[in-house]
Amino acid sequence: MSGRWRRLYNGETTVDFSGRRWWGFGVSIALLVITVVSLLFQGLNLGIDFKGGVAWEAPATKELTIDSAREVLESNGVETANAKIQTLGSGDGERIRIQVGEQTPEVRDAVQGDLAAKSGVDSLEVSVSNVSSSWGRSITEKAIRALLVFFLLVSLYIAWRFEWKMAIAAIAAMVHDVAISVGIYSLLGFEVTPATVIAFLTILGFSLYDTIVVFDKVKDNADRYAAQRVSYADITNVSMNQVLMRSLNTSLAAVLPVLSLLVLGAGVFGAVALQEFALALFVGLLTGAYSSIFIATPLLTIMKEREPKYRPLVGQMSLGTDMSRLATTGAPVSRRSARATVRDDDGGVERPEPELVGSAAERAAAVLTHPPRPRKKRKR
């Protein structure tokens, strides 16, 4: 195992997350701007459950294909420009699903009969479901209420378990995750279904878990360095480097099963119903892992640096070998050298040979560059 991977595995990296927090903020601001623009001009591709409509399902045969199903709709005067026609795979064979806007009962029955004739089955084997737009609005309102209650309970718990500033940072990260996930759905035109809403609520739990892992380590290190003059940026830097491998492992372990649902379940086996849920999970897991490091913790650092205890130390950070020494010994470098800097292996800035302020004997020893000359003996 190479030195860099060994340090990452042991939590000994010295990446300057706090010094680069504006990089993360810049990426998030750009994504949020794209989200707002996309929602204003393109909106969301709401599924039938939200905007209302009719759905038919019939067994797929040689005669009943996607093209022939479209012909059935056109022959019955149904607009096909926004129709959604899919082939679904199941244990009983493939089925054709057709989703269109709201239709009259006469049109629903006519299409059902024509699909049955094309498929060569009885009309009772062609299912028809009619969903009103009011049902979709009810589901949306309930989801929003559940989301607000979730945010409130989570805020109260984090404020009780840690502190209120951590609660604000965690909630901001979760709002960030949902907003960017919605923006990706709007930008790429993915359909929003009830399964998507459930997935969005699920990813909030993952985002919160990853953030709490980092905050717990930050709290431990804040207690550890309470008696030292250590800036809060140093505390968060050390903490995030210590839990970096754990965050990566957690995110990877969560993303791989979801990726298998997308590739195998939806792509290979044709389980389209899994695709709607897995796609939202995949997007949310990636944004959740990103926000816990580049959004939640930097926001916490900015708020904590305004406290009287940490305000005089703003801008003072232990980088490179100084950060490694701080994480290992718990003792910060008392005074940093103002000489030229070099880059370490992890991309942080390392100050060579920092000057330490210690006792008078140590300062005298640091000044002397050669041993004192011996005194000459006096002649008698």
Q: Could you characterize what this model shows?
A:
- It is a single chain.
- This protein has helices at residues 3-9, 21-41, 48-51, 66-75, 105-119, 133-161, 164-188, 194-224, 232-268, 272-304, 321-329, 360-367, and strands spanning 45-46, 53-59, 84-88, 95-100, 127-131, 191-192, 342-343, 349-350.
- It has 2 domains: 15-45 and 135-304, Up-down Bundle (Multidrug efflux transporter AcrB transmembrane fold); 53-131, Alpha-Beta Plaits (2-Layer Sandwich).
- The strands form 3 sheets. Strands 3-4-2-5 form a 4-stranded antiparallel beta sheet.
- It contains 12 helices and 8 strands.
- The chain starts with a helix and ends in a 13-residue tail after the last helix.
- By secondary structure, it is an alpha+beta fold.
- The model is unreliable at 335-370 (pLDDT under 50).
